[in-house]
Design brief:
This protein is of the alpha/beta class. 25% of the residues lie in helices and 28% in strands. The chain binds zinc ion.
C-alpha cells in the first residue's frame, strides 16, 4: 500500500520528466500551473536558485524546491531562467495594433509606450493600450502632433502644455506620464522650453516626465535642473554632445546628484544616436549602472540591433553586471517607476502570476550599437516562454 502522499511524491519526478501534469481522476489539481526546475532569479526576493513556481487563481501560490506535479498544467523549465514577467518602460508598442502580442512573446508582461503620440492623436495609442492582453500604458508626447520626422517640437508652438493637460484629464487611467524628446533634431534650440512645458503638464497631475537625452543644444546639467524625484532620463548611454559623461569620460556631478535625488536612469536602446559601446564602457566602468533596461521597441526591432528586451538585457552582461542585477532592471526596478506596476516585477506569493521564461545560451554572439560597431559576447538571453495572469501564452 502506498499513501496518496507517497504516490504523489514518486509520481512527481516521473511527471516532470514526461512534462505532463499528474492529476488524479475526479480530483481537482492542487495548482493550476507549475513551472518546474528552472533557475528562478527574482531580485525582489533576493533569490537566485533552482526552484519550482506554483500558480493558482492567476497568482503566485508558492516558490520553493520540489513542489511536485499536482497541477493541471506543467512547464518544464529545467536549464532555463524563470524570472518575473518583464516590464519595458520605453517602447513604441502602441504604434501598432500587433505590438502588445509581439512583445508578450518576448516575455514582456508590462509596457509603456513612451510618447508615440501627443494630444492630437493620443486616442490612437490609448486604444492599443486598452485592448492589450498585458498591462500597457502611454506617455503623452508634449509635442501635440507626436513623433514627427521634422522634429516633434521644432515648432515650439507644438509643445502645448494646455492641450496635454486636457488630454491627461480625460484619460487619467491610461496616460501615466509626459515624454519630452530633447535632441537637437527633435526640439532644435527649444529643449529647455519644451521640458518646462512638459513639467507644467505633468505636475498638474503629479505624473513623471521622461526626457529623451543626448545630442541636445543645451548642456545636460541645465536640463537636469528641471527634473525631480520620479522623473526618468532615457537614452543614458547616448554619445556626445551632451552625454552623461564629460570629455574625460567622467560621470558629470550633476548626473550623480540627479540620481541621488531620485531621478531614474534608463537605457532606451533604440537604433539612432542612443548607444555607442565606448560610451557604454566608460559609464559602466564607473559603476553608474542603469536603473532600468528598456528597448525603445518598435515593430522593426526584430531586424535591428534591438531585437527584443532579453537581447537588450544581455548586452550589459559584458560590462560587469550579474544576471540578477540585469533582471532587476527589467522587473522590480521597472515596477517602481510607474505605480500601475505595483505588485508586478516579483514572484512573491500572492502577486499576479506574470512570468518570463528565458534561456541564457552560451556560444558566440554579436551585439550592435547604434553606430554599426559590434562587440562579441559569449552569452545571450533568449525568450523561451511567457505566463500571463497564470496562463501560458501560446507562441
Ligand atoms: Zn522612444
Amino acid at each position: 500500500m502506498v499513501s496518496r502522499r507517497q504516490f504523489l511524491s514518486s509520481a512527481a519526478s516521473a511527471a516532470m520528466v514526461a512534462r505532463a501534469p499528474r492529476v488524479f481522476a475526479g480530483q481537482a489539481a492542487r495548482y493550476d500551473l507549475i513551472i518546474g526546475g528552472g533557475r528562478v532569479i527574482d531580485p525582489s526576493l533576493h533569490l537566485d536558485a533552482v526552484r519550482d513556481v506554483a500558480i493558482s487563481g492567476g497568482r503566485i501560490a508558492a516558490v520553493r524546491a520540489n513542489i511536485g506535479s499536482d497541477a493541471a498544467d506543467i512547464i518544464d523549465a529545467r536549464g532555463k531562467l524563470v524570472v518575473p514577467g518583464l516590464i519595458d518602460i520605453h517602447t513604441h508598442t502602441a504604434r501598432s495594433a500587433d505590438g502588445p502580442a509581439l512583445v508578450l512573446r518576448d516575455g514582456v508582461t508590462g509596457w509603456i509606450d513612451a510618447g508615440s503620440q501627443g494630444a492630437d492623436h493620443i486616442a490612437d495609442t490609448i486604444a492599443v493600450a486598452r485592448s492589450s492582453p498585458q498591462q500597457g500604458r502611454v506617455l503623452i508626447n508634449i509635442g501635440r502632433a507626436g513623433i514627427l520626422p521634422e522634429g516633434d517640437t521644432m515648432d515650439l508652438a507644438r509643445a502645448d502644455a494646455g492641450a496635454a493637460r486636457d488630454a491627461i484629464a480625460k484619460n487619467r487611467d491610461f496616460i501615466v506620464g509626459v515624454k519630452a524628446r530633447l535632441s537637437r533634431d527633435v526640439a532644435g534650440s527649444h529643449d529647455y522650453e519644451v521640458l518646462r512645458h512638459a513639467q507644467e503638464a505633468a505636475k498638474a497631475f503629479n505624473l513623471p516626465v521622461m526626457i529623451h537625452m543626448g545630442q541636445t543644444m543645451s548642456p545636460l546639467p541645465k536640463l537636469l535642473e528641471l527634473l525631480e524625484r520620479g522623473d526618468i532620463v532615457t537614452h543614458m548611454f547616448a554619445p556626445p554632445p551632451n552625454s552623461i559623461i564629460d570629455d574625460r569620460g567622467q560621470i558629470l556631478p550633476e548626473v550623480t546628484a540627479a540620481r541621488r535625488r531620485g531621478v531614474w536612469f534608463d537605457v532606451g536602446n533604440g537604433v539612432t544616436g542612443h548607444m555607442r559601446w565606448d560610451v557604454v564602457e566608460a559609464i559602466m566602468k564607473q559603476k553608474f549602472w542603469p536603473d532600468t533596461v528598456s528597448t525603445d521597441w518598435s515593430t522593426m526591432s526584430p531586424t535591428t540591433g534591438v531585437i527584443d528586451l532579453p537581447n537588450c538585457m544581455s548586452k550589459l552582461l559584458n560590462y560587469g553586471m550579474s544576471a540578477s542585477q540585469i533582471v532587476a532592471c527589467a522587473t522590480v526596478n521597472a515596477s517602481r517607476v510607474f505605480p500601475l506596476f505595483k505588485n508586478r516585477g516579483t514572484l512573491k506569493v500572492g502577486a499576479p502570476a506574470d512570468v518570463a521564461i528565458l534561456e541564457l545560451r552560451t556560444g558566440t554572439f554579436e551585439f550592435q550599437d547604434n553606430y554599426n560597431n559590434k562587440i562579441a559576447s559569449s552569452q545571450r538571453l533568449f525568450p523561451s516562454g511567457t505566463v500571463l495572469a497564470g496562463k501560458r501564452v501560446q507562441g
